[in-house]
Amino acid sequence: QHAPNTAYDKQAIVQLFEWRWVDIAEECERFLGPNGFGGVQVSPPSENMPIDSPDVHRPWYERYQPVSYHLNTRSGNDSEFRDMVHRCNQQGVRIYVDLVINHMSALGCGYGTGGSYFNTYSKEYEGVPYGAFDFNCNDDVTQTRCYTSDCEVHNIDDPFEMRNCRLFGLLDLKLDSEYVRGKVVDYINYLISIGVAGFRVDAVKHMWPGDMEAIFGRLNDLNTAYFWPGSRPFIVLEVIEGWGGSSSEYIHLGRVTEFEYGYHLGAVFRKWDGRTLSSLKDFGEDWGMEWDGNALVFVDNHDSQRSHASVVTFRDSRLYKMANAFMLAFPYGFVRLMSSFYWDQYWEDGKDVNSWVGPPSDSNWNILPVQINGMGTCDNGWVCEHRWRQIRNMVLFRNLAAGHGMYNWWDNNLNQIAFSRGDRAFIVINNDDGWALDETLQTGLPQGDYCDVISGDVSDGGCTGKTITVGWDRTAHIYIAPDEEDPMVAIHVASKV
Ligand code: LAG
Ligand code: CA
């Protein structure tokens, strides 16, 4: 459950946050397959509570408030979801589902995005169905598992409260009940039967490891129309370290989201507190992070891009491209890229009061299609970081470098670094402000002319960017001015011209 089940051992996936299924299917065919992307993490496909109050209209976070397991959301319906999974698999691009199984919605009643009736005051969700006894905090004292007066988690250091009480007022499911487990397992096995490759599991610290073991142990093997017989679903557990609970309790079940990775990387590229790129030489386990094979790494995700000051995002585009290039070049963890929608921030008392804003939508709150413009980037409010050349081309770099360790590390003790991945690929980054990088460096690569895939692309055997000449002794002279748009150079065995 730690192996991502990618086709051809591809090394990176992308979170297409809030995209419609029809757009993802197209993206697999026209972009992700051809560019070596291993898969897509999709937003939760389970029917959710539509949130529309005077202040908050259809926020992205309503997707984290399920009301049934029918595949019917603003991203699309069941048949669109199935079509997407099939078409992406045909391109060798896997689909990973964001699983919300810790809880259902917060207080409210009405109809979900798929038309299922729910009433949280009586704790009924007809689309599943769930009723009052299926939840942890219950008026009936013989049934309850949570003893706080308002059913909320207050003391995060108390594992019982953390797992049995409500997070943000979301009705907490009794995952030790045979009935609830059955409903959850049926939902997941249905997704597996469609052909998904794995899951990102939401709110893991709010669930007991034993309940998750029982649930994951009942999952079917992946669909043999697309996967080898006996393949087990890839599991990524959303664990934010240091906030009531630890990833060590869950690591046997799958990989964990290594949030520290993006926090540190952002701080290093921002040069906070005198930090320098040269310190990244031993990035990974030596920094107190998970073992390589247990880590899912990312520069930002939909939560950290809204909440964490050191994290770099599309708004810091120059640093963002550098941090992503480093992540994709560096041999640690399984990589997830982020692909966002744009929203206008509005800062009050150091907080963005618009952080709830949902995906681009029309006047009826239907999510807008992702439009691709003539430059191959996105319009209609979609940022599509994954399509930025500097990030897109580094995906192939990582695929080609897989299995080859880091060699030929060089740094200037400050913010200029270079390293190769065996004899397959080589990268140089200059994040120093005042001065150029002007060095002859060991690339590890065989003699020849190589196209720098940061400044351009290989096209018709030529190069639209810089050409780097590697000599008989495998060294190359590299010059990177400090004020370059992208102060980096990356070459690999498939960029030889
Ligand atoms: C996650 N990971 O473990 C998600 O990545 C994170 O985005 C989810 O919270 C969280 N777990 C629960 O699934 C998101 C928003 C919250 C939002 C919640 C439920 O970050 O802000 O809560 O989804 O939609 C919102 C309000 C709360 C309110 C609650 C219920 O912010 O103030 O109490 O809704 O109305
Ligand atoms: Ca729980």
UniProtKB/TrEMBL annotation:
GO biological process annotation, one example: carbohydrate metabolic process
Keyword Transmembrane: no
Domain Glycosyl hydrolase family 13 catalytic: 11-398
Domain Alpha-amylase C-terminal: 407-496
EC number per UniProt: 3.2.1.1
The keyword Hydrolase belongs to this UniProt entry's keyword annotation: yes
Catalysed transformations (reactions): Endohydrolysis of (1->4)-alpha-D-glucosidic linkages in polysaccharides containing three or more (1->4)-alpha-linked D-glucose units
Entry's Gene Ontology molecular function annotations: alpha-amylase activity; metal ion binding
Record's keyword terms, sorted: Calcium, Carbohydrate metabolism, Chloride, Glycosidase, Hydrolase, Metal-binding, Signal
Family membership noted in the UniProt record: Belongs to the glycosyl hydrolase 13 family.
Full protein name: Alpha-amylase
UniProt organism field: Branchiostoma lanceolatum (Common lancelet)
Gene: AMY2B
Shown segment, full-protein numbering: 17 to 513 of 690
